[in-house]
Amino acid sequence: MTEEKAVDKTVCPHCGHKMKKWKVPPESTWTNEYHWICFNDDCPYYRKGWKWMEEKYEQRASYRHSYNPETGQTGPIPVWSPNALKSGILEEDEDGTERNSET
Ligand SMILES: [Zn+2]
């Protein structure tokens, strides 16, 4: 059997950038703590989204690629501005461990 190449789902398939952990807001219906979201503003998926939403829905909005580590599902998460959702980003240190903010 040939071993399947492990696909790192925390890397955006559209732009190849490492996605960021995003804290799921408490009022949402998701039960897990965080999602992975591509916050690259040059991501082609996100950039095309603006045009697409305007043409289809006449809305000034777009979406970013997201990955739910709990269900393993990937899909678009809607954003209404370039800075939308960014306040929920969980910053990580270089080595990938989460920074402990005890303040
Ligand atoms: Zn991307």
Strand percentage: 15-25%
Instruction: Tell the overall outline.
Output: globular
| Main sheet record | 5 strands, antiparallel
Uncertain regions spanning at least 5 consecutive residues: none
What hetero molecules are in the model?
A: zinc ion
Going by helix content, strand content and strand pairing, the class is: alpha+beta
H/I helix tally: 1
- Range of helix content: 10-25%
Radius of gyration: 15 Å
> How are the strands ordered across the major sheet?
4-3-2-1-5
Q: Please state the average pLDDT score.
A: 88
Number of strands: 5
H/E element sequence: EEHEEE
The termini sit apart by 51 Å
Key terms for this structure?
23% strand; alpha+beta; 5 strands; 14% helix; five-stranded antiparallel beta sheet; 1 helix; binds zinc ion; 103 residues
Characterise the protein shown here.
By secondary structure, this protein is an alpha+beta fold. It has a domain at 20-90. The protein has one helix and five strands, in the order ββαβββ. The protein has a five-stranded antiparallel β-sheet with strand order 4-3-2-1-5. It starts with 19 loop residues before the first strand and ends in a 13-residue tail after the last strand. 17% of the residues are buried. The mean pLDDT is 88. Zinc ion (ZN) is lined by residues 12, 14-15, 17, 38, 40, 43, 45, 65. Zinc ion (ZN) binds at residues 12, 14-15, 17, 38, 40, 43, 45, 65.
